[in-house]
Fold this protein.
Amino acid sequence: MAGATENTHLLEMSNITKQFPRVLANDNISIYLKKGEILSLLGENGAGKSTLMNILYGLYKPTAGQIFLKGEEITINSPKDAIRYGLGMVHQHFMLVENLTITENIVLGNEPGRMGILDYKAARKKVKEISEKYHFSIDPDTKIESIPVGLQQKVEILKALYREAEILILDEPTSVLTPQEVEELFMVIRELRKKGVSLIIITHKLDEVKAISERVYILRKGKVEGERITSKVTKEELANMMVGRSVVLTVEKEKKKILHSPIFSIKELYVKSEKGVDAIEGLSLDVRPGEIVGLAGVDGNGQSELAEAIMGLRKIESGQIFFKGKDVTHLDTKGKIRSSFSFVPADRQKLGLVLPMKLSENLIIGLHDTEPFSNGLKLNLKYIDEYSSRLVKDFDIRTPSVSVPVSNLSGGNQQKVILARELSRKPKFMLVSQPTRGLDVGAIEYIHAEILRMRDAEVAILLISLELEEIFALSDRILVLFEGKIVKEFIPEDTDEKEVGFYMTGGSKDDRYGQNG
């Protein structure tokens, strides 16, 4: 790659290496960005994408390598340096203060005023000017806590533009957006480019790489695996470069008639959130053996409270849960596991695993005090190791041994540990929440196949996912969750992502089709 004297690019990262104590996260990576370009960084979980951009934004210092801006070498020791050089970053998890207004959030840390006192009128005027320049439709006086996720993201982008960012880094920008919000974001991105902003988008979504970017770098195991013009590469080629082998991108799911009566039912369930307000309000649903019911909704509409209530981890205010015709509403978690429930939680590290414990110990959690794993007093260590080794092989868990702490495994392999444990129990009902969050296409392909295998074994599955593509790929029926209520039911073949997304944000038939629609 060209050095500083020949550089005609807006930005160049040359031979960047980042060595952590046990991990080589970036291995001699070189990339460049042209002015007015939309560039994608694509790669599987742990490929080094976010590390590279965190170096560019001053959150990490590189072990080796150089950064050039407009042909001049620069040193970025902190986000403050990055902002001074015209760099902005919108993180996957927004950094907004919920009880402050949009204006206060945008100017935070760089407030107009004197003697430490904010000149709100001046701040509001500047925010209004920037939002109008980029065609953002916002009310500067609205508090963050009362606006939807898509608008919160726009506020994050405006924060960077307020600081005069010429280069904007977006980390997994669509991870919590509906299809309509994704379209709006892409319109914003194109408008930013028209106004002279250059963008780098970190993503694992192949469709979106094709839809929005002009050029893409594919990272694998900390190295640049390839660089492509996005209009001249297929999704299959991108996926293959990401994981180093052929990947089947479409889920092959046989359509089947669900003949059985429901094995799992919820009737008029009410559950409160931590704040003491109703998170689930009068929710009812059924799941039949051999059926996957997908629960679609924007994050924060009661998904986590529902999952915890089903598994006995959260108090149920009123309503009932039935399994095999029995009322199991107030059965505790242990009782539900022993009644043939399995649970794949949304947060694998918080609820799914005990990170310091061995892989083998994590594979028997919940059944560790039953035969043949123990005699009630003493663990049968020889059997546990043999059992664990068998599951490691069957579920293709990449590990040096069953004795390593599960914290040492990659995110994808940690998820496989949970699936191996939950599927090996031969459940009759599975609650699967965000099964592929943060995973690469290779791991997603494997996990989807395992979930479908359980469906074909007549297991009743309730799938909670923020990924609409996943909901459509796996579900036999789709229920839309909005503000703790089921607002619509769909058969996947009879609808599309846009229609489901419309109801996910509280739309109604009257809104969409008119009063006579």
